[in-house]
Specification:
Strand content: 5-15%
Number of domains: 2
Shape: globular
CATH topology of the largest domain: Rossmann fold
CATH architecture of the largest domain: 3-Layer(aba) Sandwich
Structural class: alpha/beta
Number of helices: 12
CATH class of the largest domain: Alpha Beta
Bound molecules: (2R)-2,3-dihydroxypropanoic acid
Largest sheet: 7 strands, parallel
Amino acid sequence: MQPDPIEPQARPRILATYPMPERVVAQLRGFADLTVLDGETDPQRVLDQCQGMDALICTLMTKVSADFVARLPQSVRILATYSVGYDHVDLKAVQARGLPFINTPDVLTEATADIAWLLLLGAARRGWEAQSMLREGRWIGWEPTQLVGADVHGKTLGVLGFGRIGRAVARRAAGFGMKVLTFQRNPGSGDPLPDHVELRGSLDEVLAQSDFVSLHLPLSEQTSGWLNARRIATMRPGAIVVNTARGGLIEEAALADALRSGQIAAAGLDVFVGEPKVSETILSAPNTYLLPHVGSATTSARDGMGLSLASDLEAFFAGQPMLSQVDTSV
Ligand code: DGY
């Protein structure tokens, strides 16, 4: 007799939309029948492949809309995203359907904080322009006024969003002799603040008093387009913007205008509105240091993300508690 597909002793069937690191595939295959698609992002094609699956592992490249959730086959009992961010997922729909939902916090914190610093330094010291000049054979020797950038040491860094990644970025600032400003909705929650970190009364105050700002807010209806023309006008002239969170936090046209006028001296961006397409507005703006969403792209972070999902999925199918279940009611 065929086993009932949802009997606990049956091997669960898991669909992943993208190829994953070998260690992750091995762990998943240890307890489940795994189907891996070749980087499928189209919602309808993902839904078609979900037929008969018990779990779906998607990435931020798949928009998990209310319609997508409504059309997920009933066999799918748990949803996982290979990311810490989940702005691509309609949480209300996931909650209404009663679908457990897991993500990958913690394991990518340090890697992403490192990339924020690459962007900060690359933007401040004109890294991209310098590379292009050298590689294109336009470097004709050292000059007193050549490629002069902004000092980083001793400056003030505003960390907008003081979660795990924001804190890790702030920790690194101590080594550069920087003062860090941040805002916490519940001051005193979490670990005590290091000596070089000062609280301000709002995100807007942090923005207005910083030479560099690094964005670490989650993207939501409340934060979409947060760094807009009005807020940019309140920033210190010549400030530098870094974004490793989500492109949608910034109104790109307003940022490009400010880069052109010099109100913002430079921007280091790892994330964009409408990825993987990067708008001409941003590509043509001066003084940018751009990366293709590689914040978590280290072996340990990407392995860690997948292994964390695999452990939680194994726990779920064994009826055990999971470590990284998203609270979809918030
Ligand atoms: C995330 O996890 O949300 C990053 O943007 C990709 O690693």
